[in-house]
Design brief:
single chain, mainly beta, 10-stranded antiparallel β-barrel, 4-stranded mixed β-sheet, elongated
Length: about 400
Amino acid sequence: MLQPNLFRCLTGFCLAVSWCASASAGGHSGNWQMPGIHVPRSGYQAPVIDYYSGQPPQLWDDQQPVEHFLGELGKRSWLRLDYIHWSFESADSQNIGAPVTNLIPPLNVTSTQAGSGAFGVATIPNASGLSLNDTPGARGTWGLDLTNAEFELEFFGTGQNDSSFSITNISGFRPATATGIGTEERPNVVIPLRSSGAVVDADTANYLLFDDSFTAGLRGQMWGTEASLLTKRYIPGDGLGLQWLGGFRYLSYDEEFSAQGTFNNGGLIANEVTRIQANTTNQMYGPEVGFRTSVNHRWFTFSATPRIAFTLNDHSAATAFNGVSVGSGSEVDFTPIVQVSFVGELHLTPNFSVFGGYDMMWIYRLTRPYDNVVYDSSPGLAGAFNTDISQAIDLNSFSAEGLSIGCVFRY
């Protein structure tokens, strides 16, 4: 029963295959091929061979957008590096402490602090001895030559400069019977105080007394940046030319002031140490305008760049007395910054120059720590007084000036 059925199935399958082959041959006369066998024809795509496979890519390809942009940027750029040596304005010839009237040396002080009456001849320390001269620093300027203008980006900063003076062994070489009494040859040190906010006569003022030692110090640091866009010279090439300038400026100036004195009534009591500490921060920022006039030559260039920045001074201050805060605060005030820079440049090669310069800067108003300390006193028990040191933020003008030397690289 199974064999006839298998034979019929096989016969039907062969007939079906023969019919399909005939139909295919009839539709594609002359191009018939055995099913399952394919001969390459001209219509097939030739195989693609990657001859660069396995080779490392190029390190720099100036045909690519990023590399092309950086290459053009380098060709139009220059870099200036210089060492600056500046001096900051010293404090006015003002005494440390509150002002007093009728101050005629020698100053004889009566001691209510010691409770014994006489304190002898004394001197008031002067803040003008705290000068921040010869402050070193560095400055870097990157320049870019544009189609119709020039762009300059400058960063500069100075190191921390410290100034201090110290009076030690105040009672030394005095008679043993009066080691705490000041003499004209070996005067004691005093800081005058107001009386309930009022300025009083030198003979009746209250004083902080020091008959062992006294030290005062000032520390300052400046840094900032400028971004400027200058027009092309009105007269290109060699000779005299003028460029207008516009941009933005940021400038920061920080200071710290300290004073410390020791009183021991000629060694009869334990040391009483008095400390006053104050610090300020001035952060100025705003738009800037000016111009640059220069004389160009193949071998040298001389230029002067006056400019003024219309800035806001975001300043803060803090004061402490014997380690306890007695005042802190911050304000925002308007203050212009005027600066003039003179530069003389010697071109050694078309791509390298050396130069020397001089800068003058004037700031209309900023705060300095020793100006913010309020030296006051109030009545105490048994004819004594209470020391009331506090803070009141004060603003004054400020100037800085100095020399610079450096070199210029042109790509």
